[in-house]
Amino acid sequence: MTLDETFLSYLGGINNNDLINILDANLIDNCEPQLIRRSSYYDTDKFTELTQTKKSSFSVLSTNIQSINSKFNELEAFIEELSSNNFKFNVICLQETWTSENDDLSQFSLHGYDCIAQGKTCSKNGGLIVYVDNNYRSEVKLKLNMYEHWEGLIVQIQINGGNISKSITIGNIYRPPRTSNDNLNAFINEFSSIVSLLEHNCKNTLIIAGDFNINLLKLNENDIYSSYFDSLISHSLFPQITFPTRFTRTNGTLIDNFFCKLSQSMLESTPGILIKKLLIINRILCL
Questions:
Q1: For the chain: N or C, fewer Cβ within 10 A?
Q2: Which range marks the domain in which residue 166 is found?
């Protein structure tokens, strides 16, 4: 039994917990090349094997950290462990940092990274940080701190050399778990406008990471969720995570993701869900 099968066995198995099985088969079949592929779970050993083959890839880690103050030591230890194995995430996106705009974040510096932060605006548990490999030049393109129902931080990264695009736009998004239809519709309308702007202005690779608190495994049961997904697809943004990212004793939800508009040279990405004891669930994307 594979790790995916083992991990999802108590939730009814892979077939009941895979976004690809939920989506319209015609959508999948018509994606040439295929833009939505099944993601996988990675434990420590499996992830270590992956890093040995992806050292030259552009890689992104995204996680809801639920207070950087309480989890920073674990994050720092994890990054140092990767460094000892000659692997480095190029970008790290954190949601729910619980930090405010004027907080001193110098205590949360990661060696080898520039720290770009935005204080919480839509929730007391909000706050965003994007760590960027300091070998790259980065700049903030948008601080989306004017919305009531969500927040976002858009960063552009310039990369020279290798087999990847010269410019990558990274979005880091957090939407609190509010379930009213008015709230969801407001988010979808506002977010769709930003996505349209980014798609228009981004000529190369666009990656939007985050905790959206919209369960994609319920697309066929909720018209608003379906509308949200359709709006992303219409802007050529495709989900890279297809398995649940949060768990209770009885079910799993797919509320965290990478939505990507990939350049031609980056279509063979490797998305996955890293199971880490203290950092809980981390989304990874290696391009």
A1: N
A2: 3-286
Task: Using alpha carbons, list the distances in angstroms from residue 17 to 22, 154, 215, 218, 252.
Answer: 9, 30, 11, 10, 8
Q: Tell me, what CATH number does 68's domain have? A: 3.60.10.10
Q: Give CA–CA dist 67/99, Å, rounded.
A: 8
With a threshold of 0.85, does the pTM exceed it?
yes
pLDDT tens profile 87-143: 999 999 999 999 999 999 999 999 999 999 999 999 999 999 999 999 999 999 999
CB burial of 175-214 (b: ≥16 within 10 Å; e: otherwise) equals bbebeeeebbebbbebbbebbeebbeebebbbbbbbbbbb
For the chain, the domain total comes to 1
Q: How far is CA 245 from the centre of its chain?
A: 11
